[in-house]
Amino acid sequence: MKTNNKSNQKLQTSAIALLNLVLFFSTSEKTEAQNRANIVGIDHIGVNVPDMNQAIGFFTDVLGFSPVTTLGPIPLDDNWKKTNHLQAGTGPVTIKMVKAGTGANIELFEYKENKGSTKHPGGDDIGASHIAFYTDNIKQSVEYLKSKGVQFLGEPFLMPSGDTEGESWVYFLTPWGSKMELVSYPNGKGYEKNKPATLLWSPKNSLGEFNLSKNNTETISESAIRSLVETHLAIWNEKDVKKREALMKKVYADTIEMVDSHFIAIGHTDINGFIEGLHKKNPNSRFSHIKAIDVNHNVARLYWQNGSFEEPDATTGMDLFIFENGKVNRLYVFVDDKR
Questions:
Q1: Of 55, 68, 81, 107, which has fewest CB within 10 angstroms of its CB?
Q2: Is residue 207 a contact partner of residue 136, using CB atoms and an 8 Å limit?
Q3: pLDDT tens sequence across 219-278
Q4: What is the model's pTM?
Q5: Could you tell me if 160 and 184 lie in one domain?
Q6: DSSP strand E in 12-159: where?
Q7: Contacting residues for 207 by C-beta, under 8 A, at least 6 apart
Q8: Has residue 181 been placed in a domain?
């Protein structure tokens, strides 16, 4: 039995060593790929349409997007068509780039005398794709699009569990028959609760900044913003949960998102729980200013320190606030690395 135990231990040790090697090389390859490819993100999504005027009308009049640039009609030579898998008889192409809210642009292609297939790929066909548009109110979006004659392939479905818990989605068709999607998760997705090292990009995370350019955000005076930021400090120093909750209602929007480098906290309950954990871990620590609060329109920043009376700057950092309708809608937290 002892021999078997030793053998098992050796096997386990070897397996762990092999797994570590695999993880090491996988991480190294990923880092090398990121550095050498130098790809930052998605610039645009290309879509072929049968009628450019129809497509532009849909994206502007129905979805509210903006066409920006136009190229063409551009004649295509035979070599280009062969290399790019176009039919020999297809004519010139016209290209328009559309700004689609906040996120990737949409590039529309219209080929004159198009000899390609006019049949849309099925959902399980190789190369089939769709574009998903984010909305913070999927019910309102569906009602509006239906009033414009848009055909939906069902009703919004709320994901009950798993990584996409809290996400609602539904497919719809464009006038030319392409399948697209509405998606919404105003309170975040399930996987975010586990504080993952990597968060998926989302236009929702840019919604506060995007809305600042719209006319739906009231301007707050600099003095009012500074007062709210001062109260923010009081919130993080308050040890009484009830008093802290009352202060939060005055300063934070109900759907406030606090974005840290390691996690996202959504709403008063999440932030309150995080603050409570800080007080339990460091009962004698307090937050205070390092310098004056900076204000730029509805944006403010606060440089802070946190520590005991003996070491008030044990931790330092900066909070960036985005105000909307009189309260903090988004809070970005930057903690200094003192290594």
A1: 68
A2: yes
A3: 678 888 999 999 999 999 999 999 999 999 999 998 899 988 777 888 999 899 899 999
A4: 0.55
A5: yes
A6: 44-48, 66-74, 93-99, 105-111, 132-134, 151-152, 157-158
A7: 102, 136
A8: yes
> Which long-range contacts does 258-261 make (Cβ < 8 Å, 24+ apart)?
258/330, 258/331, 258/333, 259/205, 259/330, 259/331, 259/332, 259/333, 260/333, 260/335, 261/333, 261/334, 261/335
CATH code for the domain of 54? 3.10.180.10
Rounded to whole angstroms, the Cα distance separating 158 from 155 reads 10
DSSP three-state, residue 324: strand
61 and 164 assigned to the same domain: no
pLDDT in tens, 90-120: 889 999 999 988 888 999 999 998 888 888 8
Residue with structure tokens 């109110």? 137
Has residue 312 been placed in a domain?
yes
3-state helix, strand, coil in the chain (%, to 5): 35, 25, 35
**81, 97, 119: which is the final residue of a domain?**
119
Buried b (16+ CB within 10 A) or exposed e, 179-200: bbebbbbbebbbebbeeeeebe
Rounded Cα distance, 21 and 15, in Å: 10
